[in-house]
Amino acid sequence: SIMVIVPRKSVHFYQVTSLSMVLDFLSETTAVRKIAVVGSISDFSGDLSDKYKQFARLILQYADVVVFVGPNAHRALRARKDKDDLALQGFLTLKEASLFLQKILRPGDLVLLKGSNKSDHLQRLILDHYKPIQCWREYCGFEHFCDSCSYLYRDDSAADLDSGIQTESEIQSAEVVSKKEGEAIPVIVGLGNPGAEYKNTPHNIGYFVLDSLAANHGAVWQEMDEGQICSIQLAGKPVSLFKAAAYMNETGPKLQHYLVKTGCSPEQCIIVHDDTDIEFGKIYVKSDGGDAGHRGVQSCLVALGTDQVKRLRLGVGLPGKTGSAKRRVLTNFSREERQQLTQIVEDAVVILGKTLSAFNSI
Fold first, then answer.
1. Backbone phi, then psi, for 30, in 5-degree steps?
2. Is 121 annotated as catalytic?
3. How many helical (H) and strand (E) elements, i.e. helices and strands, does the chain have?
4. Terminus of the chain with fewer CB atoms < 10 Å: N or C?
5. Whole-number Å distance between alpha carbons of 265 and 178
6. Which region, left, alpha or beta, applies to residue 270 given φ > 0 means left and ψ of -120 to 50 means alpha?
7. pLDDT higher than 50, residue 32
8. Residue tagged active-site, from 12, 129, 203, 257
9. Residue 296 and residue 313: Cα distance in Å, rounded?
10. What's the pLDDT at 270?
11. Is 228 helix (H, G, I), strand (E, B) or coil?
């Protein structure tokens, strides 16, 4: 079906709910300029590496400007002819996409939206064009359309939870802390999977670093609804360590909820995770950008609504070895690798300390 939005300011909006209709609709419709906005595509399955790029090339044949939104936007951008190809745009968050559209839309434009309402809520692009909205959550858990949501124009919508709405006291507490954002304690987030069967696997090296930090500082883990937390002093600074009460690929909503409670901004987080593209033992810092195919990182960036989150990438790749990356990260470390983990943690702690010092300017 197609949802036709009555145009205002001479800009016509259409929301298409079926991928099969996108190309037909664009090819048969006439307009001064055609702009397509594409969010999550549930029609795709399996390896998405090339599917978004191929679809981007296809839809560019029928639209003047194509905008991809969400965690797969970077895949679509690979279809660009060169870095100056402005016909194809990609944004991690919907708010960024809305700001872009506000700058380029002009009378006579036709805007076609294609996404999944449950995960994208692209309708907000239309509503924001009429009247500035307040809710830009990338994950809210609601399945209804945004125009019927009471949080659309409320400035406290950022306090919504992934599993529902916070109590009034929780929202007030979050507001008090957020007003003292300059005093918020940075958070180091370790990615991993709960359960003894995953404890000694490369996928849990983020957990391993945090567990080692806690043990070396005599800290005790405390249980919260969002996960396990503890506090330590690192490089002379107070720091919170956080492990989500969720499997790695579902970490984001738990992390987002925890940050709302503590008043810590995403820019004051450091995510510690495994990376099969990096040789075992090597460590790199990434300040921003896409998830590079790591679904745990993807979950965090989507839930937080920004890619401005620092990451400590711990190499677990094995040079010369081929095979499934999934099998590698879920197979226990070898005896030789376990012997090297102590040194890896020491190196990671030094780098974390240096990264934390950069937060003074935030």
1. -105, 140
2. no
3. 11, 13
4. N
5. 9
6. beta
7. yes
8. 203
9. 12
10. 96
11. strand
d(CA 246, CA 257): 13
Tens digit of pLDDT for each residue in 263-276? Answer: 788 999 999 999 98
Amino acid at 140: C
| C-alpha to C-alpha distance for 32 and 109, rounded to whole angstroms | 6
8 A C-beta contact, residue 242 and residue 272: no
Q: What is the pLDDT of residue 138?
A: 67
User: If we measure between CA atoms, which residue out of 114, 130, 181 comes closest to residue 11?
Assistant: 130
320: tokens are 């010369």
pLDDT digits (tens, 9 = 90+) for 245-262: 999 999 999 999 888 878
* Tens digits of residue pLDDT in 108-167: 899 999 887 666 888 899 888 888 998 887 666 676 778 888 888 876 444 443 333 333
Instruction: Give the pair of three-digit tokens for residue 360.
Output: 């003074």
Please count the other Cβ atoms lying within 10 Å of the Cβ belonging to residue 79.
Answer: 22
Amino acid type, 49: S
